[in-house]
What does this fold into?
Amino acid sequence: MTRKHHPRAGALLLALAVPLLGMSASPAMAAPPAADKQPRIETVLDVSGSMAEDDAGGQTRLAAAKSAVISLLDGTPDGTAMGLRVYGAQYAGTDMGPGCKDTQLLAPVEPMDATTKAAAKAEIEKLKAVGMTPIGHSLKAAAADLGDTGPRRIILVSDGEDTCAPPTPCQVARELKGAGIDLVVDTVGFRVGAAAKKELQCIADATKGTYVDAGDAGELTDRLADSVKRALTPYERSGTKTRGGKDCPSAPVLAPGQYLDEFGYGQIRWYKVTLHPGQALRFSGSIIPAGDWETPTSVKTELTLPGQFNIWGTETSVEDRWSNVFSSGVQSDRLKWDEVPADATSTEVCAQIANNVKTKAAEPVEVAVGITGQAVQPDGTPDNKISVPSAEDGQPTTAAARPSSSKNIGSNAQAASVFKSGSPLTLALAALVGAAVAIVARTVIRRRRGL
It folds into this structure.
């Protein structure tokens, strides 16, 4: 089981330059956001007695955890506001009083640099697994460490259940979230059983965070890094709400713009776009998982002219967990007059998105529509009466989807453009061009005429 991250960055014209590429955006650990939007992050690590067990890939759980946290510090960009808290590291007795208050701040939440990282790593090396598991108490302390303004994230690593309830950790998480705190808690179950997994999942669910499992140092390193990346590169979904059809006849007709649909794994949604001779359609679908997803996974987009099948299509396949937005984009050829129905001046191109990102529930899907190319008359001369904003205009979406109707044949679809800076297709290409992608992606581009 793997996870997603949510980035938003890129350059508008780059996305339009190669619309036939199917892309999945997943930048490596990037520079932190601007100071006014930077999240404050704290890792909370279990150092209870059970962490001394020697079953984490040839070493103790604590040794594996130390290695993972040190790797996290090394890979975190300087300037990231991040701290480190542990629990169960000091009191080795059986008295619930001191044992359930055994939590310690090793590194305050402040912008990190080489000096602060070195100090934190030195403290990590001294840790011994001796105590109890006061998760609820540690969550409260970590929330206080993070302050009371801006976005905050706790990354909680535990190898077992809380031993100090009440209150339960899940209740504490609900209370923190219910107090209006902008706080997300991601949880990592390190070689946990069913009961501990359920507890950690509850904490994550209560704060709209993510739960994942880890079994050794390598997996724990990846899980911690994923959570920090997710905090540093949030993705804000956007677009006019729409709902794709079950087939082309029932599909909504979309003007150039960005739209937001929602559907689940194994489902296909259809849309239509009115095109005039001389114009080409640029279309993309981006799946944005809010929860866990499984590998391998893929997203497919296809464009079809009426009466024909699978003329233009692109599929993006991803085989690891480094992706955050799964995006597939495709462009048609310029429409010809002999492809337009008799007595009409335009036709509707059918576009579909196949969601093969395996998640537990329906997920948001951004649908991007752009039109490029000058409309032409039957003799090939420019048709200046047709003025549809093209994708290159870069204007925000202003038009909603229109109901499907035969009256749209020959109509002039007036709307603002889709491919504004920061759209999924844009950031996907930016990630590729920047060579910051750690994914294994397979893109298959198919073009079959008249099939």
Notes: The longest strand covers residues 347-358. Confidence is low (pLDDT under 50) at residues 1-33, 390-451. The longest helix spans residues 217-232.
